[in-house]
Amino acid sequence: MHRIVGIILPEEKKTIAYHEAGHAVVSWILKHVDPVVKVSIIPRGKSLGSAWYLPEEKQLRSESAFTEHLSATLGGRAAEQLILGEVSSGALDDLEKVTKEAYMMVAYYGFNKKIGNISFYDSTGQRDMSIQKPYSEETGKLIEEEVRQLVQTAYEKALGILTMHRSSLQKIAELLLNKEIIYKKDLEEVLGSRESGERKSG
To answer: What pTM value is reported for the model?
Structure first.
């Protein structure tokens, strides 16, 4: 989340708490997303709130891991929509990450059925993209369409998870408003153990 440094109003703090709680809940539920170890609503630099993950040492990422990561990244925006009834400008950084990652899935990694097992990635770095695109205008429109659909599906999945675990989302947001920083053990108390596969509904 980004904004110019200044005083954070109570209503903004509530938005930030639900935004970060949304990331935490969706990430906790989806098994292919790196484990959340810490969540904060204390501003640091340009960031109003943050979630820290423990990255697993993997050289390869499956299509499922990519799509679940999209949902986790959109969890903050989905939480705002679900609880507050509208979204804020705080998701700009999330939207940028999601758009780039979805584009890579469709145009680089061959994860899209309509585009097929084709990659438009240029590892040599010699192609000047401003002069010549490696695909037609028609293919470009199809890529945009598929990226948009991929992001929308991921958002709907995040919204569905948060709707199912709404009370847990509210508890975590309240914890953040009270403590400002919460840790893995706090999330386990609300959501259950992630490692064992045990999940508390709510």
So the answer is: 0.86
